[in-house]
Amino acid sequence: MTAFKNRQDVTGAIITARVAKGVSWGDVATAVEQSKEWTVAACLGQMAFTSVQAGKIVALFDLDETALPWLQIPPSKGSLSGAPPADPLLYRLHEIVSVFGPAIKELIHEEFGDGIMSAIDFKFEIAREANPAGDRVSLNMSGKFLPYKAF
Amino acid sequence: MTAFKNRQDVTGAIITARVAKGVSWGDVATAVEQSKEWTVAACLGQMAFTSVQAGKIVALFDLDETALPWLQIPPSKGSLSGAPPADPLLYRLHEIVSVFGPAIKELIHEEFGDGIMSAIDFKFEIAREANPAGDRVSLNMSGKFLPYKAF
Amino acid sequence: MTAFKNRQDVTGAIITARVAKGVSWGDVATAVEQSKEWTVAACLGQMAFTSVQAGKIVALFDLDETALPWLQIPPSKGSLSGAPPADPLLYRLHEIVSVFGPAIKELIHEEFGDGIMSAIDFKFEIAREANPAGDRVSLNMSGKFLPYKAF
Amino acid sequence: MTAFKNRQDVTGAIITARVAKGVSWGDVATAVEQSKEWTVAACLGQMAFTSVQAGKIVALFDLDETALPWLQIPPSKGSLSGAPPADPLLYRLHEIVSVFGPAIKELIHEEFGDGIMSAIDFKFEIAREANPAGDRVSLNMSGKFLPYKAF
Amino acid sequence: MTAFKNRQDVTGAIITARVAKGVSWGDVATAVEQSKEWTVAACLGQMAFTSVQAGKIVALFDLDETALPWLQIPPSKGSLSGAPPADPLLYRLHEIVSVFGPAIKELIHEEFGDGIMSAIDFKFEIAREANPAGDRVSLNMSGKFLPYKAF
Amino acid sequence: MTAFKNRQDVTGAIITARVAKGVSWGDVATAVEQSKEWTVAACLGQMAFTSVQAGKIVALFDLDETALPWLQIPPSKGSLSGAPPADPLLYRLHEIVSVFGPAIKELIHEEFGDGIMSAIDFKFEIAREANPAGDRVSLNMSGKFLPYKAF
Amino acid sequence: MTAFKNRQDVTGAIITARVAKGVSWGDVATAVEQSKEWTVAACLGQMAFTSVQAGKIVALFDLDETALPWLQIPPSKGSLSGAPPADPLLYRLHEIVSVFGPAIKELIHEEFGDGIMSAIDFKFEIAREANPAGDRVSLNMSGKFLPYKAF
Amino acid sequence: MTAFKNRQDVTGAIITARVAKGVSWGDVATAVEQSKEWTVAACLGQMAFTSVQAGKIVALFDLDETALPWLQIPPSKGSLSGAPPADPLLYRLHEIVSVFGPAIKELIHEEFGDGIMSAIDFKFEIAREANPAGDRVSLNMSGKFLPYKAF
Amino acid sequence: MTAFKNRQDVTGAIITARVAKGVSWGDVATAVEQSKEWTVAACLGQMAFTSVQAGKIVALFDLDETALPWLQIPPSKGSLSGAPPADPLLYRLHEIVSVFGPAIKELIHEEFGDGIMSAIDFKFEIAREANPAGDRVSLNMSGKFLPYKAF
Amino acid sequence: MTAFKNRQDVTGAIITARVAKGVSWGDVATAVEQSKEWTVAACLGQMAFTSVQAGKIVALFDLDETALPWLQIPPSKGSLSGAPPADPLLYRLHEIVSVFGPAIKELIHEEFGDGIMSAIDFKFEIAREANPAGDRVSLNMSGKFLPYKAF
């Protein structure tokens, strides 16, 4: 096992180990005692773990000990490098922002005034919505409204 | 009043008239008997109205009659032209896709297998979530799961 | 043989092995009992195999066993990274979308109304069209029409 | 009626007149005695009409006579300016090239050797495919195979 | 005087009127009773005015009354469209983010943990710093720290 | 330990060693006797160290001796490659330039005339601003004003 | 004559008037009593004139009086919007930066240490260099060296 | 020592060896008996050496003999890949082209007519210009004027 | 007839007039007594005419007299703005540079050494090459070889 | 010698071996009995060799036997990745398309009607054109004209 040199390498090792060992994301979430949603985002290199959680991740995936500090340090986040994502599932999310984003902007402003929905003080949840015409993905987001204030 | 030459001009006229007349999006939704969410998207040029709805939009905003066919024809959709959006509210939606998108992808695949959440057979809803630490924006999305099938 | 760390490496190994062993795509399709079209797309990393099919791919190309889970997991899809493709054959497909795409859009809307041709519930077929002036490529696509619905 | 200064303005006038007069693309195709597919592409500024066809287009849409030479001159073609198209229907066509393009390339090479499917000596056809699970769009393309030859 | 159709036109009219009338930004700030910093940002179309402030802006610059609602509605913000800014003064700000941004990120994380400095709950101040070797620009920014929280 | 081939590799080694050894940026600044702000920028490959400072960095992080000349040579600087940064903290800095940059430009010109705030004869400081509504990040910048002169 | 709304329109009017009246850039420089080099840059909208110079420009080119304040205000500068310039003469300047820029960087650092050649405290001069093999363009630049200093 | 596979690897080896051995660019220029300016450009992979010069470079930097043919073959040149350079010194050169390029174009055309300053039949020289207000960088360029001719 | 404000407007007027009057490019070339190739390039705004030629162009196309100086001034040239051209004919030229450009580079270097084929001291000719298998376009280019010289 | 994994590696090995062995492109062309122009394009990875030719290439450059199938399979072609090429020789070819491309388009359409010059059924030839004012590069291209046909 070689020492990890950055968070990106740790993320790669987690992805590889999870597939090789056949661990489900639900199992990982149980181990770190957070929601599946947050746990996956954190494992994919977007969030910082606590020291206890980092230890559990290292154990679960048999990672080199040098992964420990990287898992606890605020990572460089974000996965989109400018162009729209090519993956069809990710593109559909991008398309929703493109087609419905201006409407979402109008409705938030009509309800709350000038400001934004925070992407930091934010959480989301995914659920299956049973439906005879074909099941649906339910994606619920909740972000604090942050108003612009004059100064 | 000059004749409309394309849907984009009709959209501009609706935006201008709504601000000048002080009509709320809720009023528009009531007039066309759809959700506020869909109505704003349609007024911003992303959806096609029925003939009856188009007539109500023309009446509500005092538009030239040539707007009628344009409002009923499938428009050229989408508002993002490649680079991430500069507007802070729209950027936060883009950032959510960038930071949490890969996690959403993993979880949908774990629950449903290979496929996507449709952005066509899709609806969304925005609501205020009262919270003593500052109210939150609740943004709920529901899209049909479409599986890839071998052929 | 080293363990595979992601699907992209598995795809690279399949491409190398197929050329080295001189296996035709038709042979691969026979092995996994699907159409040639779907089989090639899947081997190039765009589709997920069933467990049985993954086993046959590993056997056919003498791959390391760690390829098995990667072949069954929904991959990150898409091969275009923003700019038009430089390869002349791929560019001709891109040019068809550029030159004839708006006409295709008009005709689908005239026939079906507002909506799209699905790229998920989709299949295609390639055939040789004998022609004295030079044989032709026949490329047939079939995708479910998905209508936008008001909500 | 003002004189037309370029083909793009003629295209805009055709689009506007067709919507205003409620003419279907099928009617236009009948008038110029070509397929619907080619006719729409030509009306959208991608193809050159014959002198007789140009006269029929001018009559059908009540265009200024200065449209006549513009309709017969080879136009500057193509509608994609670099970034993937934002419109969902056009994006699905782009995604098909992205996801299935490399497979199409492999299969054409396996069947025909090195070369391309022409996008010039090319035609396409759109049809409705009735299907109890929801009708499908059938999009058939036929392009001459052009081989690379050593020199 | 023609009616305003969007906020961008109102911004253009303010810029033109301020230069033509020779009004200083300090005078504008006095009129709306906010800091110079916020006032300029708002006049350049980045912030929403209150009803009283909008009235003062219209009076000060002799604008058409239709400017009133536009000045009070949350605008579409942001001035950078992807590429770095060409203007040398703006580029220096961009360069500071490029050269010193990663250091700023490290230090905020060392002091506060994982999270961001808000650009919404944010204010800034510009002052002249007298200096015998040439006066300096002092640019002070203050933004609320927003931590990421597990969910 | 292998010899360093460029400054970028030295930067990578510093980042890895700092996390592995758990050294704080404050400790590094103490070692080289400069501000934390400058020290972090220099360690991240943006500034040149003196010979004495380079020696202390090599000792502190146990680097190969070949790092010494690289640390003292003017590096190739800058971390933004065109597109806006994807990391949320860095993006907020970018957004501040996008939303408030034109206002900063106006106010510097009103106070100083035509010219720029230098990004070379420049320093910055980060501090925690205690606040009952949540602590704030205070980011102070000071750059020499450089006027354009006619020639 | 219509009132000017921004500096860009004034620049356009100067360019049009200079060609229509057949005034040489040398004549303009004589009128404003600066070098030809600075004068052309200023007329093309890159520099601010003094009040006296602005008056001479307005007189020389018969411009509307509303041009006066625009000519004296620090303009938004820069003519390159991201992609390399398409004009062959401008491209050669860009190519010189591309081919010889890294060598210039090395030599300035070898002579002066870490820092830059100012593009603000900067002047340039163009002259004809007679040469039997074909005359040469001599382009001399002089910019103050600005060192980075630790803080 | 491994064999070199391309010119880029030779360039990397020269850069590494020069820093490790502490050789100045002036020393290199003396060895190959050319100006410092041309020598640095050539060492950075932009120019081809003669056989004698290549031998001296290999000796001076202790390079593997396989570097010899690479140093004499016309290289693939240019260091800018589309976006403006991020390094502050290189960016200032880019900014000079952006701010003063159109003025340079006008003055070359006024003096020489339609054509360009060659970037091939071209040389440059860098010198220190002593100045009590701070030394200046003098950058002199000389390129043959190449006129466009009708044909 | 309105006065021309720049060369681009003159180019637009020539294009419009040529189509409206049905003048062939051969006729224009005869009028200005140059090759068809150069004449079309000049009419499309890429080259400067002599005073006599400008007069003939104005007469032939019935242009406003203000076109005269614009036709004689070195224009801002180039038609490609970064992305590959969308027009199929222009794209084929771009593809030839993409597919065969590196081979052309190798062969020019093998024959001439380091340098370029000038695009300024350059001419081209287009001819029909009769061929029983379908006529061919013959495109002959001739550009002076310009060697790089050490300095 | 390691086994080749794709055509790109084979191309790299050919480039390295040719420089190391000092083989001229003319020698390679003689070996495969095709023109120098086609041979270089093929060696640079743009064309497929016959089985006999592939054997000669492997022998001439002492390549591993696994190169054989790669040299005979239709490669992924094209060398331009979106932005204009930085190399000065390649850029001049790009500039010719930019400056003269629209004129070439006009003249091909005037002579042949709507269609393109094929870049597939295409050949080119490079020759030295002796000239007392400096030798010239003669670049002759011949491509089949492919007309658009109505369908």
From TrEMBL, chains A, B, C, D, E, F, G, H, I, J:
Recorded superkingdom: Bacteria
Record-linked SUPFAM superfamilies: Cyanase C-terminal domain (SSF55234), lambda repressor-like DNA-binding domains (SSF47413)
UniProt keywords, alphabetically: Lyase
SMART domains registered for this protein in UniProt: Cyanate_lyase
CDD domains: Cyanase_C
GO MF annotation terms: cyanate hydratase activity
Catalytic activity, reaction form: cyanate + hydrogencarbonate + 3 H(+) = NH4(+) + 2 CO2
Cyanate lyase C-terminal domain boundaries: 79-151
InterPro entries registered for this protein in UniProt: Cyanase, Cyanate_lyase_C, Cyanate_lyase_C_sf, CYNS_N, Lambda_DNA-bd_dom_sf
EC numbers on record: 4.2.1.104
Pfam families linked: Cyanate_lyase, CYNS_N
Active site per the UniProt annotation: 92, 95, 118
NCBIfam families found in the cross-reference section: cynS, PRK02866.1
Family membership: Belongs to the cyanase family.
Role summary: Catalyzes the reaction of cyanate with bicarbonate to produce ammonia and carbon dioxide.
Name by which UniProt lists this protein: Cyanate hydratase
